[in-house]
């Protein structure tokens, strides 16, 4: 009989005995195995509900507003949250671009020990953590 979830000993063995790359592959395999047995929408519904409730609580903590007004405000709070994430992402990309330009002008290596030309080439390589091409986004 197979267990549906690993016990504590399994988790400790995986996290202490395996290098990070193997742990990533083990976790990816476990996730695929889970979603092969379960509906992903049903499996993540509680987390999505809690995430969305966060915005309802932010705009109307005492539940004094009518539901439609609370929903309207929560929608704007979500949009503001994701716009803030987009801003932080754009700022991080700009900082990385500027750092690469400074490094290129200096003619030295990147902090990871690669030549700048190699590091810039990696920007267009497949993003294996997300399963899609990076397409120049850094």
Fold blueprint:
Blueprint: H1 8-17, H2 20-37, H3 40-59, H4 67-106, H5 116-122, E1 126-127, E2 132-133
Overview of this structure, please?
By secondary structure, this protein is an all-alpha fold. Helix content is 69%, strand content 3%. The chain contains five helices and two strands, in the order αααααββ. It has helices at residues 8-17, 20-37, 40-59, 67-106, 116-122; strands at residues 126-127, 132-133. A hairpin with a 4-residue loop joins strand 1 and strand 2 (132-133). Helix 3 (40-59) packs across helix 4. The chain is flat, with a radius of gyration of 22 Å.
Total number of β-strand segments?
Answer: 2
Strand order of the largest sheet: 1-2
Average pLDDT rating: 80
The Rg value, from CA coordinates, equals 22 Å
Number of H/I helices: 5
Strand content: under 5%
Largest pleated sheet: 2 strands, antiparallel
Overall 3D form: flat
Question: Termini separation (Å)?
Answer: 45 Å
How does the helix and strand content classify structurally? mainly alpha
Low-confidence stretches: none
Strand/helix succession: HHHHHEE
Question: Percent of residues in helical segments?
Answer: 55-70%
